[in-house]
Amino acid sequence: MKIYLRLLASLKKHLPSKNGSDGSVIMDVEEGMSCTGLLESSGIDDSLVVLLNGRQADLRAVLKDGDVVAVFPPVEKGSYELKA
User: Fold this and answer.
1) Which pTM does this prediction carry?
2) Cβ partners under 8 Å of residue 58, min gap 6
3) To bridge 80 with a disulfide, which of 12, 23, 29, 74 should be the other Cys (CB 3.0-4.6 Å)?
């Protein structure tokens, strides 16, 4: 299945290819892959903010075909939590 991965700021270096000058790439991933699995397979293991289809993601969420995953580092060092 295909998902859209967008890496922002210093995370762009983890892109699997240089397809997107804006930090985005379309990726083929296995059915049942979670947000955590996607990050691990991309070599990303920092404390991050992850949006799935424009909303804060549960990292255990299973990805679906066509999902958009945006990842960026927290503004401050340490953990970061979005407040609703």
Assistant:
1) 0.78
2) 35
3) 74
